[in-house]
Amino acid sequence: MVRNFDELVKAVENAPKSTVAVAAAEDMDVINIASACEKLADFIFIGEAKKIESLIKESGKNIKGEIIDIPDHALAAAKAVELVKNGRAQNLMKGLLHTAVFLKAILNKETGINKGHLISQLLVFEKQDKSGFQILTDCAINIAPTLAEKKEIIENAADVARILGYEKPRVAVLAALEIVNPEMPATMDAAALAVMSQRGQIKNAIVDGPLALDNALDAEAAKHKGLNSPVAGNADILLAPNIEVGNTLGKALVFWANRKTAAAMPGVEIPVIANSRTETLENKILTVALSAYMSLKRS
Q1: pTM of the complete model
Q2: Would residue 258 be called left, alpha or beta, if left means φ above 0 and alpha means ψ between -120 and 50 degrees?
Q3: What is the DSSP letter of 202?
Q4: Which residues, in sequence order, are CB contacts of 266 under 8 Å at separation 6+?
Q5: Which DSSP category does 226 fall into?
Q6: Strand pairing report for 66-69 and 261-264
Q7: CA-to-CA distance for 120 and 139, rounded, in angstroms?
Q8: 150/12 Cα distance (integer angstroms)
Q9: What is the CB neighbour count within 10 angstroms for residue 193?
Q10: In this structure, are residues 251 and 275 in contact, taking their beta carbons and an 8 Å threshold?
Q11: Which residues are 91's β-sheet partners?
């Protein structure tokens, strides 16, 4: 089990390096990430070769890595997926291309790497006392998930949590309050997910809700509300009711709280790196480290 990002990075640095296939790598952001992650992973750059070479030269850094000349973004994404399917790469990374083009290559029924699972996005961050990690999901993909989709989002996040060492993570289904209110659909879904967990319909996780954010994170706040719950005050995973809440909380972690985060996109056969372009370089490095760690644990 790794308890914080320092332990995560050290674990990856002490293991054999995985390889990242980057689709549309003609981007200085990609070059900077590859340079900063030389101890964490090797990179295959797929895209417009002349531009990639020019950017490497412009960076002034000694960056090693195979370059595959495929200027077309859709074809570059398809090639990156092919490389992970045939084992030449263990991680997939989004470069300078539209997310829809990237996901289309992943989801292709004949050549892709998705087996019909819902794809979601999450952020991993350290608990305040650095005694472990917490996960926030979904922050970027599923706009207004249905009850069935929320179940899959929980299971996706629980898979990542288990890789980090949480055998049965505690999941808080977030809402604005802790009681079920028929006029607030998020509370209805939360209650249904809690019952599904109690009846074994959600595997390898303990789910409770509805819980407001303070009661999910703070034991004293939960005690003050008189909540008798194995999750309240001890949540490992926070399930947002919709993309607005997930995305806003995720950005607040970074831009208001200055917290370190790493992103993941579970639901796919292999780890996928698809940071926001406004993310800090440090957090992009941590995302590569998390992706490499997930590859190690799955191998």
Answers
A1: 0.95
A2: left
A3: S
A4: 119, 120, 122, 156, 157, 159, 160
A5: T
A6: unpaired
A7: 8
A8: 31
A9: 24
A10: no
A11: 20
Tell me the β-bridge partners of 237: 135, 171
Tell me the per-residue pLDDT of 231-259, one tens digit each, with 9 for 90 and over. 999 999 999 999 999 999 999 999 999 99
How many other C-beta atoms are found inside a 10 Å radius of the C-beta of residue 98? 13
The CATH code that applies to domain 122-255 is 3.40.718.10
Class of domain 5-116+268-294: alpha beta
Are the beta carbons of 1 and 256 closer than 8 angstroms?
Answer: no
Domain map (residue ranges) of the chain = 5-116+268-294, 122-255
Locate tokens 């002034």: which residue? 60
140: left (phi over 0), alpha (psi -120 to 50) or beta: alpha
Residues pairing with 68 in the sheet: 46
pLDDT of residue 277: 80
Residues of the chain with pLDDT under 50: none
Contacts of 269 (CB under 8 A, 6+ apart): 84, 113, 114, 115
Spatial strand order of the sheet with 261-264 comes to 206-211, 170-174, 237-239, 133-137, 122-126, 261-264
CB atoms within 10 A of CB 195: 12
Tell me whether strands 133-137 and 122-126 are parallel, antiparallel or unpaired: antiparallel
Starting at the earlier edge strand, list the strands of the sheet with 91-94. Answer: 66-69, 41-47, 18-23, 91-94, 272-273
pLDDT tens-digit readout, 171-183: 999 999 999 999 9
Rounded Cα–Cα distance for residues 276 and 186 (Å): 26
**pLDDT score of 129:** 80
Query: Beta strands 66-69 and 41-47: pairing type?
Result: parallel
CB 18 within 8 A of CB 41: yes
